[in-house]
Sequence to fold (304 residues):
Amino acid sequence: MIDIDARKKLIGASGEFSLHARLRMEGGELATLFGESGAGKTTLLRILAGLTAADEGVIRVDGETWLDTRRRINLPPQKRRIGFVFQDQALFPHLNVRDNLAYALPKHADHRFVDELLGLTGLLALQQRRPDTLSGGQRQRVALARALARRPAVLILHEPLSALDANTRRQLQDEILRLHKTLELNTLMISHDIPEVFKLADRVFILEDGSISRHGTPTTVFADRRCNGKMKLPAEVLAMEDDGVLYSLTVLVGNQILNVVAGNEEVRNLHIGDKIILLPKTFSPMLVAVNSIRPLKHASRIKR
Fold:
């Protein structure tokens, strides 16, 4: 379990504001911090990692106190069991893949763990290569494996996939999810990509004006249940749930998240991540699969 209650004065585009973030993660969760640039997301992660000092606050991870300003407890970064993956990887260019991982091992750690990580992340064939000979996706996989080499209590992902192309991004999303579950990690990630949040996150924390404004599953946090029937095209399928008789689809329409009810024929051969078109009708929209460009047979209803 992770408990964070941190305060810090910050300077934003509109002047000074106060970051006061309170959040709790259950063990084994993959949670996402979501919010506009300048809301304090990066600062909060840096406070958790011990890279930025909080003005006041408390951080406890799995029963261990990392920060308690009233008791003058503030563990340095090297004593906090944190694995940090940055957008720019920050790999050592003069070291090969194996040595990059070995460098991150805790003191006196068993170096056989490097072999285990190389296998888990599919890097065995690349272990003797240096970062400048790897693709962007391969370098990010190395950065992820290096973060895991510390056997972290918390894995922090700071927009690690934002610079990658769509196919590589999807592959690494699958990799992150697999490693998170296999190693039973506590993972906290910053992402501005709503489909990515839906795919990866158990819980979302919305950070607005320096505080957590709401939190919950991606559907409960983002879904707009007050739809008035005016929809934009195209859309992307984020989640599908079988209600027994009908299907409940969560779709991304422009910058809006909508819940749409669909029948069996409408969702035939439809998958999460597929692009669709919502065709407004008199009482309800119709779905059109972009890949086949064919209207689906039955109309769908917006869930209010």
User: Anything to note?
Assistant: The chain has a mean pLDDT of 84. The chain has eight helices and 18 strands.
